[in-house]
From TrEMBL:
Residues 112-131 are annotated as: Disordered. It comes from the Bacteria. Keywords: Cell wall, Coiled coil, Membrane, Peptidoglycan-anchor, Secreted, Signal, Transmembrane, Transmembrane helix. Residues 49-111, 140-291, 544-763 form a coiled coil. The chain crosses the membrane at residues 815-834. Residues 804-838 form the Gram-positive cocci surface proteins LPxTG domain. This is SEC10/PgrA surface exclusion domain-containing protein. It comes from Lactobacillus mulieris. SUPFAM superfamilies: Tropomyosin. The keyword Oxidoreductase does not apply. InterPro entries: LPXTG_anchor, Surf_Exclu_SEC10/PgrA. Pfam families: Gram_pos_anchor. NCBIfam families: LPXTG_anchor, Surf_Exclu_PgrA. The lineage of its organism: Bacteria, Bacillati, Bacillota, Bacilli, Lactobacillales.
Amino acid sequence: MNNKFKDTVVGTAALLATTTIALTINSHQVKADNKENTKQIKNNSTSSLESTEQRVTKAESNVNAAQLEADSASQNKVLAEQKKDQASDTLNKAKENQTKAENLVKEAQNKVSNKEIGEKQAQKAVDEDKVSIDHAQSQVDEAQKAADLALDSLNEAQSKVTNQEQKIKDAQVKVDNAQKIVDNTNVGKIQTDLDQANKNLIQAKSSLDEENNKLTKTRVAIDNSNEQLNQGQAELTQKQAQLAQANEQLKNSQEMANKANEDLTTNENSLNQLKQKIATLKSTEENQDKLIYGTDFINLVKKYKEENRDNWGFWPSYPDLAEVAKKYYEANFQGYKPTQADENTYYTINNGLIDKEAIKQMSLYAASLLNPLRISLGEKPILVSDASIEVELATIKAYNDANQGFGHLENIIQDKIPKEFGFWTEGESIAMTTNSSDLKGTRVSLADLKMGIRQAIAMWVFDDNDQGYGHMTDVLSLRIYKSEDAAISIDKFGIFHFNDIVEPSEDGEFAQLKKTGQTYNEPTDVASELANLEAEEVTKQTSYVAAKANAEQLNNKLNADQQVVTKAQQAVNDKANTIKNIQSSIAQYIEQENNIKNTIEKLQSDIKSKEEIVTNLENQLAETSADNKQKLADLQTAKSNLDEVNNELISLNADLKQKQANNDKAKKTLEEKTSILNEAKQKLELDTADLLSYQQAPENLKKAQDNLAQAQDEVEKANKAYEEAINLLTISANNDELAQNQLAEAKKELASAKVALSTLKALLEPQKIENNSAEFINKQQMPEQVISKIKNKTVMPEKTRVESNKTLPQTGNDSWILTSLGVLLSLWGVMVNFKKRKI
């Protein structure tokens, strides 16, 4: 139950309680005024009904307005979605255009990059095409002349054939007349048989002529085909030569591209290896455990080294050097930072001696600390070798055997050991460190050894003023005698001994060990090496860039040459197919020629038989009378004349066919030559266009770049429009949701008002109002549950009022309850006021 509803119920209960008490005390007065109460109730109820009807009307108006707003918001949302979709399509299209523009820029850039080589090649192709066109044009001109002559000859032959056909018609009339005369004689049958035999013979000869003409035509076709074959093979040879030349060029380009790519790979690998080496060296330099010293210290040492270059022993006391060295002493003494590996590496000390591997690691560490300083001072770096380790091991053993604690034993370091190994020395450097007592056990870590070495070197180099810089000049090789081989180790008392070798004899034990053993370090100046490597990196980077540009150029040339080879190979294939078709035609012509020859042989045999028949019939005819012979002779003469003109026509037809064949051949040759010329012209157009594309490469690139810029602008605009559409859609969706919520709330308020109105109308029927009020007053009682709640209330509200909602309801569907209670309240309020007036 919400607060508003709860307060209304409590107020109503309080009024009911007041009414109940008053009615109980003065019931007889209430009865007397019952009609007056009923009238007042009706007036108040009518006012509430009108107010509720106005609420319904207002709620209906609110629903209609909210519905319009909701419809409008939904339509705006649909329009915003459409606009978003259109903006997305526009953006996608703009991106596609941008991608196309970028591809065109790349193509144009390739043209610009290959302009010099491509333009030369294209110009060469154009020049070759022009030569080919001139040659082809010359052949076309010759073929045209031959075609014109062949056509003139054909027209002349056709005219002769037409005239001869007329002569045959005239001769046939004479034969027909002579035949009529002969038919009236006794030799008619013989003559008829002879004529038929002659016809058969002529027909056979005509067939033979036709077959001979076919044979001639076939032979001409074979010759033409062979000529075409020879020409095609010559052209094929030329195209194969062009293909071979293109392949050779491609091979050269491939080799050059391969070499360029190999050079690029080599340069790239070399550059990457160098970069890795530099990174490793930098990491080594950064992580290297090294002495800390400055140029002020180095410059002073160099100065006093020069002053004491002939000094065999100690230097004078130099306060300025001592003051500068003091700055670095503490940092170097305390500066050791052990690694996990060194802390986990242990060595065993047996009978006061540590093994050779420990001496090797200790000596290499000491060399790594001292060598950068020695090199900075212009001295040779320390070399650690099997020979120097053996010297160190023998020295420590001699000290242990002598049971000597802290102090120098000159008989060992200047007599025993130098004589044993064959070298000379001035002395040694020894030191006790803060952890020397810890190094006298039977097991010691490499980290503890290195810390002791660093502290010893810090004392020798930076805290040696009171010792005449003897230790410093010894370990840094600054005296007149110079050392290179050295080693360091500890004795059984935990004291460090640094021993260097001076002037070893060539045949001594040390020299022999140096030759047969190993040298473990070749120290370098890390900073100098790093500077050299970085300078080398710049050079290699330049070489790599040049190799990359060269590889790209040669790869582009390789692609262009590959296209030339592809075109040349296609031309070879096309010409080979043409030759194959010609060879197939020749094979068919040869087969046809053989068939014709077989037919000719059969016709020749048949003609021979027919000639024998004619001879027999002519002999029979010869035996007839002279008169008949004359008639037959006249007939024969007429037929002979006819045969002559027929034979002449055959000859003319044969000549006409030959002229027709010659004309066809000339036309075909002209067509072929014209086709070759057209092909050459088309090739010239393509090569000229290719040349023009290279000549206009910068201009085309500029256009492509302009188009790309425009496409990028379009993408930016489309993207902005798309973002605006998304924002508009978000706003429209929010407005639509708000409008739908407002519509739902308006509908709830309308439903609530209608329910309240319906309830109020039911309660306000005149008869019910009167009966209910009378019954209520007469009974003078209330529901038990209401009375029980009223008894618990001790304070009544000063004023209880129910107002119509001025906004859409926010608490659910209970407003009709409030309305009903308001009606009841108005009824009870009248009666309460009435009682108060009577008291």
